[in-house]
């Protein structure tokens, strides 16, 4: 048996239950088609209802096993070894770089954006300037070759188009 | 027998064999690049088949899909980016094996298990195609609904983290699948007037975000790739012994895969999940599943390719394509004057057998190509992690973009990555979310269609024999699981008190 | 240099560059938006057209599948693209229905129309052991009471649904009592029919052909004005029931509204050659798709007629999207 039991479970359970309520409420506005016994709103209502039930179950499980917090966390140590602690700076910058790419690529084009993105990530991940300068154009060009020329994926051309 | 000889003449010539080889290599590359699917590979090949004679034309489609789907296991094993929903079922195990230095073993099990499963599927196809197709034709929306429900039940209940978390993961996947314009009534749901959401959320960017991006977020700068790998000279060393050890799983996986694959629209995706959970249920060491244990990998890998072979049955015998790939293949068959249908077996049996032979050759070709790929993939563990992170992230972006050719897919990828990171941190399983997204439409469409047929009467779901059997089985599994959970909870409460 | 010389030079430059733009079109790859998924019939025809266009124009024509919302997403994407001739797209029957059904505001008037290349009437099927032997039997049952007849053929409000209600209406039965079982595609409906879960299926000929050959289902009537050469034993609706039936599926090529006239004319000319080419006809014939060409303004007129027919059928049946 897994050992649930943490404050996080209570919080996540409640978040899921809230999502369930939102899904259920939104689904009420989907009307049935004329002459149909059921409509597009039925299944979302079932799923929303399910989220409320299981979210509540999770929250209750977490609440009642809360005193056992210390004991429950002990066996999960290997899990934490794998998970590691979150490197906030790194994750934040990586996600930021991807979001920036989303907005910049249509303007600057794939080649330029991808080149800058690669240099940024290599440097951020602890690579040297030299490796970043050599790797980025090669990686960018090979990806372009494979996806654009090979598989006809219309990557944005931007400035260079 | 004459037909078989004629078929051999059609297949064993330089042109056809060369086409099969080239198509296999093409499939290998497409499958190994994240975001590119077997469907895309086939669609790209259609204009080429236009200039080929019938047998080589269909051979390109068959060989490239078989290879692309198997190659999806490569990226799953090495980078935790599963290539297909089916390989998401066992990606945890194959990825953890690679992290333990057993990448060659994991890939070997995937490849050799797939080849054996694929050949088993071929034998099934050879002897029972018409009968199996006839059986599959009796499946209506009621049977499909229960089958999808059974598959999702398996996924939710086997997942680590307990039943409530498994069910919530699954429900989240089902909810994500509902976003967009529903395919039955045309109602826009949860789109908030965003045109791009109207198209729905595709599972490719979701899968890339939830597995690959979440993994990079988790490991950060310490992404551990410099794993000393065993058996570098022969990556497949010891694979046969491992398959022999789990021969029961291999055989069972192949049988179930062949049967479920014959159902149009269900195919390998669902089958691999069902057999993976079956392997876990019947295993002596279920707790090792998901930590780099080969048992589930053997069974689900075999299922995957067995189902792939038999998914051609309904397409060839009745012209009912189960997925986009077989739909394209049916188109090519028709275009080349080999109309699918019962006449393909009676009037021109040499063509039917020739197609079968292409299967066998494509499957056997997987061994040397897969071996080379496994041997070559070793370098990935020697690339400096800074470069690898940049490469993976770039592939994540391009792969998510490629599915609909919009940046919106990349946004989806980021959002899903963050959700998956948070959920996984609190021991929610990610795989049921993916399965929910993939099977959600199948479950919902067949549920609604059935409700409309019975005019809202739920008892109608048990009025057909096969549907009743599947329905009772599904409900029993849920009943046992809920009862079991309550029972053990009561016991711990009593023990604590 | 005086001002006139400058002006003359500028005018010359503009003329040359304009002339060059036309002479060079296309000087870079063209994108073709297909509003349905890879693997479907629309995709297959789109890809053949792309291949042939590439040969004629000497530039790559890249197919982009922009799927979702029953084709609405792809049509909207084409409408929104830059009208420079470098984005073209396949238009389908659904374009005749978005507005009457209310699922979208987009119509054929939002596009520069290049050419119609395909038109296909549907057919009506029953299971092999069905009590209805001829279309007359089925019509008698529909007139009696259409509700117990569970008909299917794809999405609610889709072409086959509109075809069914239009047929029910045409034989004089109460259309509001017609029963439609929605599925996500014609194959799913045919599977339902073969498994015995429903009574009638409306589908296009090629999709159902293999099941007919296998003896699982039977065609009762072909909804065109003449018999189809590929299924010569199926009576056409005009001879069987004595009236014309206007609802049919169609496919064409279009571009965003307002592309330069010279580019449009070039595309219309090239496209007419493609539709007449043996390669194109071989593919269409192999798939049993009817080839019909209407170029430029004729295509506009064709779609105007469709818009009226679809509007009439859809509004009388009360089909509305949310």
UniProtKB/TrEMBL annotation, chain A:
Listed transmembrane segments:
12-30, 42-64, 90-122, 129-151
Keyword Protease: yes or no? no
Ranges where the DUF1468 domain occurs: 11-156
Q: Which UniProt keywords apply?
A: Membrane, Transmembrane, Transmembrane helix
Q: Which InterPro entries does the UniProt entry name for this protein?
A: DUF1468
Q: Which Pfam families match?
A: TctB (PF07331)
- Protein's name according to its UniProt entry: Tripartite tricarboxylate transporter TctB family protein
UniProtKB/TrEMBL annotation, chain B:
Q: Which residues cross the membrane?
A: 20-46, 103-132, 144-177, 197-214, 312-332, 352-374, 386-403, 433-454, 466-489
Tree of life domain = Bacteria
Q: Which UniProt keywords apply?
A: Membrane, Transmembrane, Transmembrane helix
Give residue ranges for domain DUF112.
Answer: 17-435
Q: Which Pfam families match?
A: TctA
Q: What is this protein called?
A: TctA family transporter
Source species: Devosia enhydra
From TrEMBL, chain C:
To which protein family does this belong? Belongs to the UPF0065 (bug) family.
Q: Which Pfam families match?
A: TctC
State if Signal is listed as a keyword: yes
Organism from which the protein derives: Devosia enhydra
Q: Does the keyword Cytoplasm apply?
A: no
Q: Signal peptide span per the entry? A: 1-23
Which keywords annotate this record? Receptor, Signal
The record, for CDD domains, names: PBP2_Bug_TTT (cd07012)
This chain belongs to the protein called Tripartite-type tricarboxylate transporter, receptor component TctC
């Amino acid at each position: 048996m897994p050992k649930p039991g943490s404050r996080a479970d209570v919080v996540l359970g409640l978040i899921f239950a809230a999502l369930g309520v939102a899904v259920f409420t939104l689904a009420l506005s989907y009307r049935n088609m004329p002459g149909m016994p059921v409509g597009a709103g039925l299944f979302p209502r079932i799923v929303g209802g399910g989220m409320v039930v299981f979210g509540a179950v999770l929250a209750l499980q977490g609440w009642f096993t809360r005193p056992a917090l210390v004991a429950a966390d002990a066996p999960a140590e290997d899990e934490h070894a794998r998970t590691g602690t979150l490197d906030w700076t790194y994750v934040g910058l990586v996600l930021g770089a991807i979001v920036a790419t989303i907005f910049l690529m249509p303007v600057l084009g794939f080649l330029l954006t991808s080149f800058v993105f690669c240099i940024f990530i290599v440097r951020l991940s602890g690579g040297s300037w030299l490796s970043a300068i050599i790797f980025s154009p090669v990686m960018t060009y090979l990806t372009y070759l494979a996806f654009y020329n090979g598989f006809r994926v219309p990557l944005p051309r931007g400035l260079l188009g | 027998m004459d037909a078989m000889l004629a078929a051999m003449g059609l297949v064993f010539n330089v042109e056809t064999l060369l086409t099969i080889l080239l198509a296999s290599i093409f499939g290998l590359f497409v499958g190994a690049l994240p975001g590119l699917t077997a469907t895309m590979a086939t669609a790209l090949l259609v204009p080429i088949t236009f200039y080929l004679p019938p047998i080589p034309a269909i051979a390109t489609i068959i060989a490239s899909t078989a290879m692309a789907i198997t190659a999806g296991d490569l990226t799953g094993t090495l980078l935790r980016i599963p290539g297909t929903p089916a390989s998401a079922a066992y990606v945890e195990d194959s990825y953890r094996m690679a992290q333990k230095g057993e990448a060659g073993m994991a890939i070997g099990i995937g490849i050799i298990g797939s080849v054996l499963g694929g050949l088993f599927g071929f034998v099934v196809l050879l002897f029972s195609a018409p009968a199996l197709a006839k059986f599959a034709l009796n499946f209506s929306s009621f049977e499909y609904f229960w089958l999808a429900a059974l598959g999702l039940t398996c996924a939710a209940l086997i997942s680590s983290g307990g039943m409530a978390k498994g069910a919530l993961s699954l429900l989240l996947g089902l909810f994500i699948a509902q976003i967009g314009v529903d395919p039955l009534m045309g109602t826009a749901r949860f789109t908030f007037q965003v045109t791009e959401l109207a198209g729905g959320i595709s599972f490719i960017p979701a899968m890339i975000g939830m597995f690959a991006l979440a993994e990079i977020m988790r490991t950060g700068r310490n992404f551990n790739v410099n794993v000393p790998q065993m058996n570098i000279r022969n990556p497949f060393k010891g694979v046969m012994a491992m398959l022999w050890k789990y021969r029961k799983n291999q055989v069972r996986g192949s049988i179930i895969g062949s049967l479920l694959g014959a159902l149009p629209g269900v195919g390998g995706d669902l089958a691999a999940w069902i057999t993976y959970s079956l392997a876990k249920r019947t295993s002596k060491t279920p707790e090792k599943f998901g930590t780099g244990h080969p048992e589930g990998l053997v069974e689900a890998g075999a299922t995957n390719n067995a189902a792939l072979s038999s998914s051609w049955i309904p397409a060839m015998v009745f012209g009912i394509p189960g997925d986009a790939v077989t739909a394209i293949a049916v188109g090519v068959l028709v275009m080349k004057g080999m109309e699918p249908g019962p006449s393909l077996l009676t009037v021109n049996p040499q063509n039917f057998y020739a197609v079968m032979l292409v299967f066998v050759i494509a499957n056997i070709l997987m061994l040397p190509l897969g071996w080379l790929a496994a041997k070559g993939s070793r370098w990935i563990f020697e690339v400096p992690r800074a470069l690898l992170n940049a490469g993976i992230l770039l592939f994540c972006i391009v792969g998510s973009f490629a599915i609909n050719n919009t940046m919106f897919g990349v946004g989806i990828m980021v959002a899903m990555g963050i959700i998956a990171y948070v959920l996984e941190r609190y021991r929610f399983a990610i795989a049921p979310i993916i399965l929910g997204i993939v099977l959600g439409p199948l479950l919902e469409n067949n549920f609604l269609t059935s409700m409309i047929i019975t005019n809202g009467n739920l008892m109608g779901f048990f009025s057909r024999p096969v549907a009743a059997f599947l329905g009772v089985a599904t409900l029993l599994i849920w009943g046992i699981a809920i009862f079991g959970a309550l029972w053990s909870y009561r016991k711990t409460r009593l023990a604590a008190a | 240099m005086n001002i006139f010389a400058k002006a003359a030079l500028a005018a010359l430059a503009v003329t040359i560059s304009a002339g060059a733009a036309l002479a060079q079109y296309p000087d870079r790859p063209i994108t073709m938006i297909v509003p349905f998924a890879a693997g479907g019939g629309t995709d297959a025809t789109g890809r053949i057209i792309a291949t042939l266009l590439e040969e004629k124009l000497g530039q790559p024509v890249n197919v982009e599948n922009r799927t979702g919302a029953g084709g609405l997403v792809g049509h909207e994407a084409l409408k929104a693209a830059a009208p420079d001739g470098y984005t073209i797209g396949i238009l389908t029957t659904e374009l005749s229905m978005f507005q009457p059904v209310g699922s979208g505001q987009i119509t054929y008037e939002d596009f520069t129309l290049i050419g119609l290349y395909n038109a296909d009437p549907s057919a009506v099927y029953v299971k092999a052991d069905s009590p209805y032997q001829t279309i007359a039997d089925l019509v008698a049952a529909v007139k009696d009471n259409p509700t117990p007849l569970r008909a299917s053929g794809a999405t609610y409000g889709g072409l086959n649904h509109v075809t069914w209600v239009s047929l029910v209406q045409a034989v004089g039965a109460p259309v509001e009592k017609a029963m439609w079982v929605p599925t996500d595609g014609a194959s799913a409906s045919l599977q339902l029919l073969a498994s015995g879960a429903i009574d009638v299926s409306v589908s296009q000929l090629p999709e159902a052909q293999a099941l007919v050959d296998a003896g699982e289902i039977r065609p009762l009537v072909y909804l065109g004005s003449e018999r189809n050469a590929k299924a010569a034993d199926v009576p056409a609706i005009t001879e069987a029931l004595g009236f014309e039936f206007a609802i049919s599926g169609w496919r064409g090529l279009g571009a965003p509204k307002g592309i330069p006239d010279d580019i449009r004319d070039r595309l219309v000319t090239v496209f007419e050659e493609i539709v007449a080419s043996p390669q194109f006809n071989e593919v269409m014939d192999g798939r049993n798709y009817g080839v019909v060409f209407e170029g430029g303004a004729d295509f506009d007129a064709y779609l105007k007629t469709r818009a009226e027919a679809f509007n009439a059928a859809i509004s009388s049946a009360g089909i509305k999207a949310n």
